[in-house]
Amino acid sequence: MKSSFHAIASVAYKEFLHIYRDRRVLLLLLILPPLFTLLFGHAFETSEISDVPALLINRDNNARTQRFIDIVLQNKTFRWRQAPPEITNESDLLANQVQATLVIPQGWSDSLSAGNPKPLPLYLDGSDINTASAAEGGVQKSLADFQVKERDLIVENLPDEVIELGKKLPVQIRKQFVSLMEAWTAESKILYNPKSRFIDYVIPGIIGLILQLLTVTLMACTIARERESGTLYQLMVTSLKRGEIVIGKILPYLGVSIVLIAVITLVAGFHFHVQFYQPPALILICLLFLLCSLGLGLLISAFSKTQTQAIQFSVFFLLPVFVLSGAFAPLEQLPQVIQYLSEVFPLTHFCRAFRLVNMYHASAVFYAVDLIVLFAGALVTFIGAAFLLRRIEE
Amino acid sequence: MNEPVIVLDKLSKRFGDVQAVREVSLTIAAGTIFGFLGANGAGKTTTIRMLCGLTHPTGGTATIAGHSVWQERQLVRAKFGYVAQRFSLYPDLTVEENFRFFGGACRVPVTQLEQRIANLLRLADLEEKRDTPAGSLSGGMRQLLALGCALVHDPPLLFLDEPTSGLDPVHRQHIWNLLYDLSHGGKTIFVTTHYMDEAERCTEVGFIESGRLLAKAPPRNLKATFRTKLLEIDVDPVMPALVRLRNFPGILGVSLRSGALRIYVPDPERLISTWQTNWPFPDLKLLGKRWVEPDMEDVFTAYSQRYDALLTSPAT
């Protein structure tokens, strides 16, 4: 056992020297994690959409539409530019360099008075789904505000006879009328992420993204590099056992990854004030995820003949993972079939378990399945890699 | 004869449709420097890789010190060192770090490792290059380092796959001097080469061609299997003579050596007496003739080109 320990230490030290001597990789390892954390953290800081460039055309200029325009100009969702009523290309958003155009058609005011309100034409840039729906909501809100103001104006100007008449109504009916005149509201209490900070949601995504990006690709190159340079045969004629090679190769990358996680959490904690709940549980989740990623890299490495192939395989694997693992957006938005597919990716389980602990403060029962999946993933990839290495030998 | 260390019995290897090694049987005794000669693609590297347990035989068996090279490869690996054909050490590690890694990987006890590394640095004459990355060494030094790494666990047997290919004569000599020292120290050495002059330095030589072992004997015995006297002639100009004589009826082959032509022919005495009276090429001048001792290249050519008429059956 002592000689096995020494053999593993030799492999691990050699592998560490490879990382340490490759200045480009070292630089990547030192700079990427804090940079990505800052970048992603700030990029997703505000999820509220504001200052959408928009065009306002008023073809029904009178006191009432002016009251509406006063309200809509206050709306922070838009950065309005007013266009003269005679322009005709209101639907050409691209030429007008806006993402929305709102038209007040001729006779709108009259249609409101006539009890047959015309709808306002609203052109939206659908290429960006979020902006389109935010813009639509913004216009609806301004319209609602306008409607309330107009109602109040009418009520204030009602002749006294009508008020007297109203007083003859039964109290119950009158109260119902009063109630109906007010907008009904829900009192929402936001749980789990009370300040609605996106950074708190996305932090496991950032950790997972960086770790997978670096560990999978670097690990994938290790055996492929030995194969490419012929050192794998030299390695195999030593009395090293396959398990010793695998463990020796994993150890330095495990160490590097742990440092990376520490750097990311420090940046997240000090710069973005992210709170970490139950560190031991989070550490366990990270560790299992790491083993799973390293195993995956090793697996890719074992069936790639060259480093180029290893990188290609890694990218093929990592691309769908980043989109479909729920790292940056809730999985529930995806179609059911793709949700099943995403259960295959370790990152999905990592993000879910991490959020369950850090945001929901959930007990282990809720994320036990994710831990088991990660553990199984690590086991399967390691055994698979050892098996593939055996095939190389033959 | 010493006890056999390596025993091959009908060892064969097939890659798909290609039969790389065909039923090679041979025995190598302890202390031998065995030179395995053959052209590129003759099956040298495949044989050596089977012996190192890097690829499994598709037929026959091979043993090292009585242990199967495939079934018991984990056990056998402690008994030999291997220098691959391609430089296959870690270029980003220094000379000392390479030694240290292979020492650890070959389970050299920690207490002995320092002494072992110091000895190897001296042996390979790399003491001054101790902290140089292996990738920055010259070709000759890389090969010395590779040899040192193969010796780190002090194995009784050493496999070298074309250790001197591409090296300058000085480093070739250095490597061979090292091999003599190792052989003198009792190690068995199995070396492949396609340099014929290196074959002369071995205590035993095996010829391999298209995966078949053609002959195996000490160099002197191999030369003795050359049945006829070897004719060498001087002709002016030499190149047209070489081209025309190659296709001359009765001549098996011609080789150019130091400006003279060696003629491989079953009955050279009759040929030269005919030529001295009736030289068939009026535009070329026959300047002289002499009888020479066949060297290793002549013998190898005769075996590999199947000039059976020139050879007695080899004394294996």
Q: What would you say about this model in short?
A:
The complex is a heterodimer of chains A (about 400) and B (about 325). With about 400 residues, chain A is mainly α.
Task: Characterize the structure shown.
The complex is a heterodimer of chains A (394) and B (316). With 394 residues, chain A is mostly helical. Helix content of chain A is 69%, strand content 5%. Chain A is built from 16 helices and 4 strands. In chain A, strands 2-1-3-4 form a 4-stranded mixed β-sheet, with helices on one face. In chain A, helix 1 packs across helix 11 (242-271), helix 3 crosses helix 6 (129-156) and helix 15 runs antiparallel to helix 16 (364-393). Chain A is elongated. The mean pLDDT of chain A is 88. Chain B is an alpha/beta fold. In chain B, 33% of the residues lie in helices and 28% in strands. In chain B, strands 6-7-8-3-9-10 form a 6-stranded mixed β-sheet, sandwiched between helices. In chain B, strand 7, helix 6 (169-184) and strand 8 form a beta-alpha-beta unit. Chain B is elongated. At the A-B interface, helix 1 and helix 10 of A face helix 3 of B.
Over all CA atoms, what is the radius of gyration of chain A?
31 Å
Share of residues in strands of chain A: 5-15%
> How would you sum up the major sheet of chain B?
6 strands, mixed
Low-confidence stretches of chain A: none
User: What oligomerization state is this entry in?
Assistant: heterodimer
Shape type of chain A? elongated
Indicate the mean pLDDT of chain A: 88
Number of helices of chain B: 11
Largest sheet of chain A: 4 strands, mixed
How far apart are the first and last residues' alpha carbons of chain B, in Å? 13 Å
Instruction: Flag low-confidence runs of chain B.
Output: none
Structural class by SSE content of chain B: alpha/beta
Global geometry of chain B? elongated
In DSSP terms (H or I, runs of 4 or more residues), the helix count of chain A works out at 16
Return Rg of chain B in Å. 23 Å
Q: Pairing-aware structural class of the strands and helices of chain A?
A: mainly alpha
